[in-house]
Write a structure and sequence with these properties.
Shape: globular
Number of domains: 1
Strand order of the largest sheet: 3-2-1-4-5
Distance between the termini: 20 Å
Radius of gyration: 16 Å
Helix content: 40-55%
Low-confidence stretches: none
CATH superfamily: NAD(P)-binding Rossmann-like Domain
Structural class: alpha/beta
Number of strands: 5
Number of helices: 6
Length: 177
């Protein structure tokens, strides 16, 4: 399939395995130059080798934690003008809401809501100026079908979904979806 995105640049967060890796692989197969990141350099290098061999898009690696400001700085320094941003991060641990305090909630919101919002904040205006952009937020089925033991994930990811719904219309006028 030709999605007409060959030559574009994409940041795919948390992309050494799972859905992030699959997204980076699909984009590289379409000829997109991808910047992949993970906290573990060894698994990141393994993913980069697989992705590099699968398509014509160039693969660049950044060892960074997307849930930290320093990690996001490193990612956006490596690829300052992405055409595509795929927001992704591992989920908070399951458990009983009675056991979660402020720290657990703040970590969940930072990792699965704020980090994505910050990546959008830092890349959206450039996409609008260039007249093209795609932002994909990988969340969870728990957004539609919440599960009690995934309360931290339910809350943070549903919050991101609500935020995106509120801001999506304006940039769409500039071919940024």
């Amino acid at each position: 399939m030709d999605l007409k995105i060959s030559g574009k640049s994409a940041i795919v967060c948390a992309s050494s395995k799972g859905l992030g890796r699959a997204c980076a692989l699909a984009l590289a197969k379409e000829g997109v130059n991808v910047w992949i990141n993970a906290r573990n350099g060894k698994t990141l290098d393994t993913a980069a080798r697989e992705i590099s061999g699968a398509g014509s898009g160039e693969v660049h690696t950044i060892v960074a934690d997307v849930t930290s400001e320093a990690g996001r700085d490193a990612i956006l320094t490596a690829c300052p003008d992405p055409d595509i941003v795929v927001n992704n991060a591992g989920g908070p641990p399951p458990g009983d809401f009675r056991d979660w305090g402020q720290r657990e909630w703040f970590d969940a919101v930072n990792g699965n809501m704020y980090s994505a919002i910050d990546m959008i904040r830092r890349s959206l205006d450039g996409m609008v100026e260039r007249g093209f952009g795609r932002i994909v937020n990988i969340t969870s089925v728990a957004v539609k079908l919440p599960q009690a033991e995934l309360g931290l994930s339910n809350g943070a990811r549903a919050g991101l979904t609500g935020f995106i719904s509120g801001i999506a219309r304006e940039p769409a006028k500039s071919n940024v979806t």
